[in-house]
């Protein structure tokens, strides 16, 4: 009796570090591999599985790029100014404070622009409208 051991074709993951996502897709597809998840945008920083790894033909390769794609503006209406500012800065946004006299609790966020749920890139600006107290009171 003769047994044949069938092994799927193995490929070497090409090095796509430092190239654009579009170029990395072409290189991987030309090598007989698929593109899996793409994390971030800009130039590719590394892949999983990493370059020079042996993988099955047709395997999906995940790309990890320079910067995250988009950050979602959180709903901070009603939060204290300091809290809202700290949260936005920790997420990577630039914060612009707009103060407006209004009846209500002083120092709270009354509005946010762009609105909550908007997707922005890191270092883009988010404006928060802050209640600074009743109009006409000094």
Topology of helices and strands:
Blueprint: E1 10-12, H1 21-30, E2 34-39, E3 41-48, E4 54-56, E5 60-67, E6 71-72, H2 81-91, E7 94-100, E8 109-113, E9 119-120, E10 125-131
Parallel strand pairs: 2-5, 7-10
Antiparallel strand pairs: 1-4, 3-5, 6-9, 8-10
Task: Write a concise synopsis of the structure shown.
15% of the residues lie in helices and 37% in strands.
Q: Characterize the main sheet.
A: 3 strands, mixed
Mean pLDDT: 87
Low-confidence stretches: none
How many beta-strand elements?
A: 10
- What is the CA–CA distance across the termini? 99 Å
| Radius of gyration based on Cα positions | 25 Å
Give the overall form.
rod-shaped
Give me the side-by-side strand order of the main sheet: 2-5-3
**SSE string, helix = H, strand = E?**
EHEEEEEHEEEE
Report the structural category.
Answer: alpha/beta
Number of helices: 2
Query: How much helix is in the residues?
Result: 10-25%
Strand content: 35-45%
Word description of this protein:
The protein is of the alpha/beta class. It is 15% helix and 37% strand. It has helices at residues 21-30, 81-91; strands at residues 10-12, 34-39, 41-48, 54-56, 60-67, 71-72, 94-100, 109-113, 119-120, 125-131. The strands form 4 sheets. It has a 3-stranded mixed sheet with strand order 2-5-3. The protein has a 3-stranded mixed sheet with strand order 7-10-8, with helices on one face. The N and C termini lie far apart (99 Å). The model has no long low-confidence stretch (mean pLDDT 87).
Throw out a few tags for this protein:
138 residues; alpha/beta; three-stranded mixed sheet
């Amino acid at each position: 009796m003769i047994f044949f051991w069938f092994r799927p074709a193995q490929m070497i993951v090409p090095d796509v570090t430092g190239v654009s996502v579009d170029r990395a897709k072409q290189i991987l597809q030309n090598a007989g591999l698929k593109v899996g998840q793409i994390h971030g945008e800009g130039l590719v920083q590394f892949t999983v599985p990493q370059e020079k790894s042996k993988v099955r033909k047709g395997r999906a390769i995940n790309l990890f790029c320079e910067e995250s794609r988009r950050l979602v503006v959180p709903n901070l209406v009603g939060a204290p100014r300091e809290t809202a500012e700290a949260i936005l800065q920790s997420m990577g946004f630039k914060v612009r404070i707009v103060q407006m006299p209004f009846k209500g609790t002083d120092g709270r966020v009354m509005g946010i622009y762009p609105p909550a749920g908007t997707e922005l890139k890191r270092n883009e600006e988010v404006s928060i409208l802050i209640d600074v107290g009743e109009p006409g009171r000094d």
